[in-house]
Structures are given as structure tokens and as C-alpha cells.
Amino acid sequence: MILGAGPSGLAAACEFNKTAAAFLIIEKDPEVGGLSRTLSYGDFKTDIGPHRFFSKNKYLYELIAALLGKHWIKVARRTRFHVKGRYLLYPVELKNALLGIGLVSGLRMLAGYSYQRLKSLFIRTEPRSFEEKVVSDFGRALAELNILNYTEKIWGMPCSEISPDWATQRIKDLSLMGILKKMFFEDKQHPKTLADQFYYPDSGSGLIYESMQARLGMNTAGELKLNTCPLEITHDGKDILGVVLKDPDGERLEVSPRDVISSIPITELISLLNPAPDGKVLEACRRLRFRSHVSLFVTINKRSVFQDQWIYFPDKETPFCRVMEPRNFHPGLAPAGKTSLLIEFFCWHGDEIWSASKEHLLRLSLAHLKTAGLLAEEEISGSFVHREKYAYPVYDLGYKENLRVVKDYFRKFKHLQLIGRAGSFKYNNQDHAIEMGILAARNVIENKYVSLDDVGSEQEYFEP
Length: 464
What we know:
alpha/beta, seven-stranded mixed beta sheet
């Protein structure tokens, strides 16, 4: 049984689909794809935030290329961030930053970065927080340009309270010589990198998962149940004995699976267990938090707002964090002559932003979009709001120990595997989620154990 039909759950199902193995995949929503599904609003489409696909794993590209064929396209990336009234390139390029924020400020950033690089050659200290890690890697001035303030907007807490693991996982280090070469010399012979271009389905990220769903329909041994959720999981401390489900009609159904692969939020999974874990495990799980996500989608009566796929807004005075223009991923995501924007807010479940009405979010957004020179109210033709409770696992200072306690408990179950961003409480991308699902399925099919915690490193897991 696979709990959840997001990227990791569907990838596991597709792997089972290659065999004669019987499987059941359940999904509480009426459609597949999880956080990577594509939403529709009339003739407009949007993903739930920017979902570019990139991976160091050739197998995954071949897998999706086989699913999508001609609908799997390459897109030239363009992203910027808006800071202090100016638009600067992202990833940060110091030559562009020097021109954008001024020579004095730019040289101060370069001097701070150079000092920290030289200092690290003689003095090595273990950073205790994200703030210490980023400042030691980049210098205070460069870190404050967009990293520290944007991170605090995402997570809703000071960077001094965020684990340094977040920097290790998400921010690539810089080479001083590389920066200087890029500032003063243009290497026309250097090939395009993943920062320059990415692959994308021509009708939205959700096409990947809709195609996986279609492939599952070809196998009579497998079954996908939508609008179905787990109510209870009974166990004896070593094995899952039964899973009680609620179907779309509200009827209860009990299944006794041999193996369970779960991509539902780890905190939700633990609440389903009967009997419940002991108090220590429950308390550790209670301390694991997810950041929530609210997106305001607006349709617009003009062809284009900007040329970027998305723009970051790290200034704390701006209430939203990121704005995406879907048609810049592919023109087919908006009708001819029109466009749309997805305006993203990060929040805590139940807080003011989470509970805000569409009208309130529009008022908040329009004032800043107008100041940034992007949009006027009279250009908007329609709007809707989308909310996701479990968007990002929070890497606070205590998360690692709390997660260790919870995962140690789950490791007692011989035939249970945790996959995906929410299921494993690991901030990963689509490629890592798909990879986790494939590995989990192979563990079952081949009766072996490959650790899923390693997914996201730079190792190659699959042979073509």
C-alpha cells in the first residue's frame, strides 16, 4: 500500500507497475501530483510555485522523457530578485550586483566575502545556526543582500534559530576565483548549466504525474483510489496489521497490506497509529513543524508582466516572497494575449495570512506590485487563492534530534518506508522525491534495503 499520490508515491507505483506485484495507492485529493500538480482557472494554468525539473540522475530524465515525449521541453531560465527598488540577477552575479546596487556597496560585499574565505583557511569553526553558516561562507554584506532576509521571510523565524543544515542542503558555495573570472571575463565556450536552463512539461508540472497516473491504468494488478484517506493504522510494534480507509462515499474499508510506503506528512502518519507511540516519541513528533504556503493567482488582461519565470522579493516590507509568471515557463499556460501571476506567501497554519480572504491578499499584494512597477488593479480580470498546509519541513535548531527520535521509532516496523518531502521530513525537490519512490519500490520488489535517507546526495543511484 502506498499512502499519497504525489511525486514519490506515484513513482513507487510506476515501479511496481513494471512487475506483476499487486499494489494499492490512495490519495485524499481528487487529483494526483501533490505539491507538484498543476491548477486550472478557466483557460489559465499554474503550478503551485515554480517547479523546474533538474537532476544529476540521468535515469530520471530518461524516465520522464519516455513519459512525456515531445511535451518535455527545455526552457532558458531567467530569474531575478527585487531589493531596495532594483532588480538583480539570481543566482547572484557580482558584476550585475555592482552595477545594480552601486560600486561602493558591491565592493564591500566582495571584500567581506574575500575576508571570510581567507579567514576560513586559518580558523575553522563549526557553525551553530544558519546565520553563522551563511555569514562565514559569504560575508555579512553579501548575506544580507538577499539570503538572510529572504530566509527569515520563508521560515518566519530569525536565521539564528534555523539549523545550519538548511545552508548545507540548499546553498551552493562560491569560488572566489570563479567570481572574479565571471565578473571580468565572459566564457563563451562554457556550456549551459542547470542554472541557465531546465526541463519543463509544456502544460505544467502536473503533466508528469497525470502521465504516471495514465500508465498505472494499464495494469490490472494495481489500483489508485482518489478522494480516499487513512483513518487508522493498527500494528503490533513490528508489523502493520491493518489500515482503515475512508472512501469517497464515507464508507470504511480495512486493508491488510504486507508493505506500506508512506508519503503523507510524518506527523499525520504518527497520529494514525493504534496503539499510539510512547510520550517521548509523540513529544518529539509534536516539535516537528511544517511551514504552510498560500498562493494568490491573478489573471491579467495583457500579454506579459515581466520576462522572468519568477522574481524573489527578500525585502521584509513586502508581504509576499516570490512572484511567478506561468506563461514564461510555456506560453500555453495562458490564453493568447493574456497572462497571469502566482503570488506566494509563506505562513504558519492558522495565522493571519493563512486565514486571510482573497480580497485582503489582493489589497496586500497590489500596493507592492504597483510600487515595483509590475501591475495595476485595473489590469486584473480574475483571481483565486490556493492553500497548502504541509509545504516545507522546518529545519529549526532542534529538528534533527526530534526527527531522529521519530525515525528510530518507525525503523522498528520491518515493512514500512517513509518517502517524499513530507513523509521523510526532508526538504527535497521533485527529482529526489521521484528517486525515493523508485528506491522504496525496489526495496520491496527485490526484498532488500537501500537507505532512503541518502537520496539528495550527489551519488548516482540508477543505471540506465
